[in-house]
Amino acid sequence: MGNYADLAREAEKESNWWCAYRCWLCYGGDYGRENAEACKTIAEAVDKANRFRELCGDSAYRWARHEINNRELHEIQEKAHVEAYGW
């Protein structure tokens, strides 16, 4: 059983949260489930943040170059936020 914990810890060090989640589930017990849930929470947060950045694209760069104004940047980010986070 210790092997799964070692694999999970290694995945955590590499920020491979979904892999760590699966390894902790395989480890089992309360300790494994608690760690799996923590890894799942982090993985979901990272996925949502990545989606937000993807949806925003290069808008911050375009804003810095004065290609779009504050209102346009805000609209892009607001739309991305709703789609990525659901609120």
Notes on the structure:
The chain has 87 residues and is mainly alpha-helical. The protein has one domain (2-85). It is built from 5 helices and no strands. The chain has helices spanning 2-13, 17-27, 29-56, 59-64, 70-85. The longest helix has 28 residues, at 29-56. The N and C termini lie far apart (40 Å). The mean pLDDT is 96.
Q: Strand-and-helix sequence, N→C? A: HHHHH
Shape, per Cα inertia axes: elongated
Into which percent range does the helicity of residues fall?
over 70%
The overall pLDDT, averaged over residues, is 96
Helices, by number, come to: 5
Helix vs. strand class: mainly alpha
Record field, number of beta strands = 0
Total separate domains: 1
Q: Give unreliable regions as ranges.
A: none
Instruction: Indicate the radius of gyration in whole angstroms.
Output: 18 Å
Strand content: under 5%
Q: End-to-end span in angstroms? A: 40 Å
The largest pleated sheet is described as: none
List keywords for this structure.
87 residues
Question: What secondary-structure arrangement, pairings included, does this model have?
Answer:
Elements (H helix, E strand, L loop, with lengths): L1 H12 L3 H11 L1 H28 L2 H6 L5 H16 L2
Helix pairs in contact: 1-2, 2-3, 3-5
Give a short synopsis of this structure.
The protein is mainly alpha-helical.
